[in-house]
Amino acid sequence: MDTRVVNKGQLPELLDKLAQDYTLFAPVCEDETVTLFKQVSGAQEITLDYTNSDVSPKGCFFPQTEKTLTYTNTGDKLEINNVCEEEKTVVFGIRPCDIKSILALDPVFHGKFVDEYYTNKRENTTIIGLSCQKVASTCFCTAFNSGPCDGSGSDLMFTELGDKYFVEVNTEKGRVLVDAYSQFFGTQDTDQLAKAKAEHEKKLSGQFVRKVDLDGVKEVLDNNFELPYWEKVFEKCLGCGICTFVCPTCHCFDIFDLTNGLFTGERYRCWDSCMFPDFTLMAGGHNPRPTQKERVRNRFMHKLKYHMDRYNLDGCVGCGRCIAKCPVNIDITAIIKDLKEVGQNG
Amino acid sequence: MMEVTQQLREQAKKLLEEKKADIVIGFGQGTELTRTTPIFINSPEETQDLVWNAFCANNLVKYLVDCNNESNNVAVVVKGCDSRAVNRLLVDQQIDRNKVIVIGIPCPGQLDWHKAADKIDPAAQLKEVINNEDSFTVKTDSGDYEFPKKDYLLQKCLSCENPNPVVADITIGKEQPVKNYEERFGEIQKLEELLTEEKSNYWDKKFSRCLRCYACRNVCPACTCRECFVDQMKPMWVSKRNNLSENTAFHLTRAFHVAGRCVDCGECDRVCPVDIPLRNLNRKLLKDIGDLFETPTPGSIEDLASPLGEFKTDDPEEFM
Amino acid sequence: MDRPIPLTPYPATITKIVDETGDVKTFTVEFEDPQVMEEFGNKPGQVAQLSVFGEGESTISITSSPTRGKFLEFSVRRVGRLTNALHQLEVGSKIGVRGPYGNCFPYDLMKGKDLFFIGGGIALAPLRSLIDFVLSEQYRSDYGKVEILYGARSYDDLCFKSDLFERWPKIPNTKVYTTLDREEEGWKGHVGFVPPYVEEVSPAPENKFAIICGPPILIKLTLPIMEKLGFSDEQIITTLEMKMKCGIGKCGRCNIGSKYVCIDGPVFNLAQLKELPPEY
Questions:
Q1: Residues 6+ apart with CB under 8 A from C273
Q2: At residue C74, does pLDDT exceed 50?
């Protein structure tokens, strides 16, 4: 395993340099209570005092609003121009659960049709992960074979241990970055730090409050579509989009045009939510998911079954944001527990 | 607060057994110690799930709007601020008074669950919450926690106008003292006194991080339009694009749409996932309307028409 | 031509418009770049996304068989914002087209078999791509007897009248049954709804595929009749309509269970349909 060390005191300088040479996304704290991943111009804008961001960093690869093309249609002539960016980017400070979510989104945007808006960003971005220092009461990444210091999927994985950062170099892309900024990356005591990391991870594993057991849950969903259980869950749902918008694995979007005068205009794609009533509404009035019950059921089946069916990857990463942010406390871990019971009781 | 919880359970059970109500909407224990969740009960046994404590911030009145289409009788648990929404929906003719049973509970204030959760062992189980004059004692199986009200109440509770429900068919619990506030709109005045550029920066920062999740709209008892302006494609008033301009347009337009009918329940503020202080917007309009039309907070008096929804011959008309 | 990103349409021109009924028009569309048509490779049953720039995009099934020529035909019913905008366009108007998306009718499996088509109203449009494919000079001898049973509310609502009454009946071993929901002056053909007419015609299931497309009520009433006649679930093919946006299995909108209608559909046989949750 290729490992390095970065002195904690030198991290701000490293981040400043990265911000100069790349488009750097990192966690930023606003108004003392909200942490978001935003583009930063220097280390002084970055906060490292957060358990996890309020909104997931998927926006670095799949932004909420993205212009896809511009057009000019004079009637005689139609011109269509793609708008697809290619900027060298670094995302710093992304937690293991969110790294896993990018891996879960990758097959969605690849496949038979390659979505270059996403794949370009993915190829041009170096992911620097950051192990957790604390486990929130809403966290449950361990239910999905992951953990608070799991760097798989990142290019570099930083773990804060005392006055040093232990760095795991996981990919060629990561190696390239380490070599380019070699003045920051030392090699002393990496063995000791590796041991310290393992202890740190063990300590964190004891902090999880939610014990989530997925055993048998997918089978319940595989064999039962109409469950009376859903009647009880959906009633309190407000039908807002909070869970889908903070969720790191949600990828639904809408496409629409905006005109800019008589002949020109732009096409955008924006996040959309399966919880909104008109998501599946067809012109003509037919709606396959007419009430909140169908929409709530669809969301949980997607997270716990459909994504796995299509891509053989978990549709949920256990970040717990939906639990923390849902105004009416609809809790996926409670639903997992209830579905397990439904399966056991028949 | 356990006493109120017991009485609430008994009353709800009675309503269901006597078939006076088909559904009871109330608070149940949530999945975190510091949270409750709306529960919909239709059998007398389930009433044991009802709770009343200092984590009952949700306004359950919005659910009545959906229930109105069914033929059921619905009982709903309301605090003081929530009860204003009942009056408001009645005047808006969004609910049928004959099908609604209001269970009012005088409220000593609700705790800010984020602030409280920071202090409590997350693995603890809640045993009960005790209401003291200046604080709440949260008893758990791993210890007791004291929360001084002046530091831990929701912002809105610190200037509560109606601790006692303004409309109720059944009242459970002791009447709460009504406080007099000299400066009801203190924080609004502070914002008013900012320079234009400062105000602009303040709101630009907040609206830039709006997710356009519409939780504020969906939880609001004044937002009952079948098709919201923001969902319309023709004409497209506001597009789905998330940028400062569109986000600002959404929030300002919604604030004006509900002006005069907003009951200041504060739910929009509570539900916002990125902490946009939406109450400040709505309360600014509330203050202005109060000054211009000399009306109290909407919903605080039964049958009070919306000042922007009716015309009186002695309305000020400086512009005419 | 460089293949643009899958969400980017190709520019195309409307070269012909036929008024099928009061609210249905068939648009013939040709790509600006003939190379695009060469490489388009649409198969019967596939769909495309049509862009009216400034309004948006809509999923329309391609009603022309690739054997008909170097163009695409789309039959569009005016029912919403985008289709309304399409209907305002004229010959020469420029639109965007991207595709072809979706799976296609299993025309290879159908070789050597007799085919019984059942359609109602605008739903004949997706079937037409397969009908013209199997009836084409190129492929006619690969297929057996072709029967088309089609109905609409009134004579005016019948789509593709020239195909129904002039072109198709002339092709060997092909029969067309047309029905109107109600009696009408001047109409000497069958009167009655499509499902009971199917029962009347009573197609035998041996060596046959039934391809059905129609409004939900037609499908709901016809399927039990097919079962009664002895058709197995694998012999009954249908094509579904769902709201789609991206057409390429990414925007998450058109899912029925774990399947995306834009990738795993819109063509399903009844056995596959029965495995899907009833959410369409």
A1: C238
A2: yes
| Position A165 in a domain | yes
Chain A positions touching B63 (Cβ under 8 A) are 235-236
- Is ipTM > 0.90 here? yes
Which domain does A255 fall in, by range? Answer: 217-345
Q: Which two tokens stand for residue A236?
A: 């309190």
Residue C1 has pLDDT above 60, yes or no: no
Q: Which residues in chain A have their CB less than 8 angstroms from residue B273's CB?
A: 54-55, 242, 245-246, 325
Condensed to tens digits (0 to 9), the pLDDT of residues C128-173 reads 999 999 999 999 999 999 999 999 999 999 999 999 999 999 999 9
Residue at which a domain ends, from A183, A205, A227: A205
Q: Specify the pLDDT at position C2.
A: 47
**Co-location of A195 and A238 in the same domain:** no
**Residue that is written with structure tokens 């774990």 in the block:** C258
Query: Beta strands of chain B (E only): which ranges?
Result: 23-29, 36-41, 74-78, 100-104, 126-131, 135-140, 143-148, 170-171
Whether residue A168 is found in the same domain as residue A19: yes
- CA pair distance B53, B1, nearest whole angstrom: 6
Report the distance separating Cα A8 and Cα A73, nearest Å.
Answer: 56
A167 and A104 belong to one structural domain: yes
**Closest to A65 (Cβ–Cβ): which among B37, B206, B242?**
B242
**10 Å Cβ neighbour count for C38?**
10
Q: Tell if the CB–CB gap between B214 and A241 is shorter than 8 Å.
A: yes
Partners of chain C (3+ Cβ pairs below 8 A): A
Give the N- to C-terminal CA distance of chain B in Å, as an integer.
55
Hey, of C94, C122, C217, C248, which one would you mutate to test binding to chain A, going by the most A CBs within 10 A of its CB?
Answer: C94
User: Which chains share 3+ C-beta pairs under 8 angstroms with A?
Assistant: B, C
pLDDT digit string (tens) for A265-274?
999 999 999 9
Q: Is residue C32 within 8 Å of residue C59, measured between CB atoms?
A: no
Specify the DSSP class assigned to residue C249.
Answer: S
Residue at token pair 């088309």: C148
**Which residues of chain B have a Cβ shorter than 8 Å from any chain A Cβ?**
30-32, 35-40, 58, 62-63, 114, 117, 122-123, 205-206, 209, 211-215, 217-219, 231, 233, 236, 239-243, 267, 270-271, 273-275
For A114, half-sphere exposure in the C-beta direction (CA atoms, 13 angstrom radius) is 9
Instruction: Read off the pLDDT of residues B173-184 as tens digits, 9 standing for 90 and up.
Output: 999 988 877 788
* Cα angle C208, C211, C212; round to 5: 140
Together in a domain, A250 and A305: yes
Residues A9 and A154 in one domain: yes
Instruction: Provide the residue count of chain B.
Output: 320
Q: Which residues of B99-111 are buried (b: 16+ CB within 10 A; e: fewer)?
A: bbbbbbbbbbbbb
Shared-domain flag, residues A263 and A331: yes
For residue C26, give Cα distances in angstroms to B220, C58, C66, C226: 46, 15, 16, 30
Alpha-carbon distance A96 to nearest alpha carbon in chain C (angstroms): 24
The CA R_g of chain B, rounded to the nearest whole Å, is 20
Cβ count within 10 A of residue B289: 19
Phi, psi of B253 (to 5 degrees): -65, -45
- Structurally, chain A folds into a number of domains equal to 2
**Residue of C1, C2, C3, C7 to mutate when probing chain A, most A C-beta within 10 A:** C7
Q: Please determine, for residue B320, whether its predicted confidence score (pLDDT) is greater than 70.
A: no
Q: How far apart are CA B230 and CA B225, in angstroms?
A: 11
Write the pLDDT tens digit of every residue in A58-82. Answer: 999 999 999 999 999 998 889 999 8
Which domains are seen in chain C, by residue range? Answer: 10-101 (2.40.30.10), 114-239 (3.40.50.80)
CB under 8 A, 24+ apart: contacts of A178-183: A178/A4, A181/A14, A181/A17, A181/A18
